[in-house]
Design brief:
About 45% of the residues lie in helices and about 15% in strands. It has about 290 residues and is α/β, with parallel strands linked by helices.
């Protein structure tokens, strides 16, 4: 896809049966690489708290963190749609708070859209933001900002009541105006039902192959290990071992004076060098 991806593009992809690709990115270089590879959507996720800042969860990530990283990511993009996460407690209080936070992510963070977690409880916030002209992506299933409520990172929607609740919340989010929904850590059968029932694209992460698209954390799929290793991750590279090997080679070359060599060094005219050295030697004798 050569043209800039928009919200309308993403919705048309579902209508046309074209799968949607989405990955996280937290800095300019990662964003540039993913964009050049042809990714459809970049998510500046609050997952940066875990994979970028080394924290145990996403709860301490704040709006300033997301704005800072969103600006950096945006500079690396030419085609991909940039969706910025609304961090914990930046939208839960009321619709006015939610709109103010979303507005900052668009204006200061230069994002194309925002994402927030929750179903029925955030529909008023979603509608307020959408009515202001800001596209919103929803997030249901395992919502990391609610891990204390769930008791950890657990699969959601396995029993009848929870499954029906997820379906109902997905419908309500669509009615509130979201252009897409991330569905995380739910049974593939339930994800299939929701994907077929809703008109907006469903992007899965640990939700099976029947979703309209897929998202993974950039570091996970490249084999840069974190404290959490979800079952649903497919590792497409082993960057951690590759980087470790490269750094060890660098250290070895430095210790053994193999780096830098003459090709990696700058030189000066030999007469200038000898003149300076001779002058310093004479001054030293005095």
């Amino acid at each position: 896809m050569n043209e800039k991806v928009t919200v309308n593009t993403v919705m048309e992809m579902k209508e046309n049966g074209e799968k949607i690709s989405m990955l996280t990115a937290y800095d300019f270089h990662a964003a540039r690489i993913l964009d050049q590879a042809g990714i459809d959507i970049i998510l500046l996720g609050d997952s940066l708290g875990m994979v970028f800042q080394g924290k145990e969860d996403t709860l301490s990530v704040n709006l300033e963190d997301i704005i800072y990283h969103s600006r950096a990511v945006k500079r690396g993009l030419k085609k991909a749609l940039l969706v910025a996460d609304m961090p914990f407690m930046s939208y839960q209080l009321n619709s006015e708070q939610a709109l103010a936070s979303a507005g900052r992510l668009i204006k200061e963070g230069e994002a194309d859209a925002v994402k927030l977690e929750g179903g029925n409880t955030v529909c008023k916030q979603v509608k307020k933001i959408v009515d202001a002209g800001i596209p919103v992506m929803g997030h249901l299933g395992l919502t990391p900002q609610s891990i204390n409520k769930f008791g950890g990172f657990k699969v959601q929607g396995r029993d009848r009541n929870n499954a029906l609740n997820l379906i109902e919340n997905a419908i309500k989010l669509e009615e509130a105006g979201v252009f897409s929904i991330v569905l995380e850590s739910v049974p593939m059968e339930l994800a299939k039902i929701i994907t077929e029932k809703l008109k907006v694209p469903i992007i899965g992460i640990g939700a099976g192959v029947n979703c309209d698209g897929q998202v993974l954390v950039y570091h996970d799929m490249l084999g840069i290990k974190s404290n959490v290793q979800p079952k649903f991750v497919r590792q497409y590279a082993d960057f951690e071992n590759s980087i470790n090997k490269a750094v060890k080679s660098y250290i070895d070359d430095v210790k053994k004076r193999k780096f830098p060599d003459i090709k990696e060094s700058f030189t000066m005219d030999i007469d200038v060098y000898n003149g300076i050295k001779g002058e310093l030697d004479r001054n030293g004798d005095n």
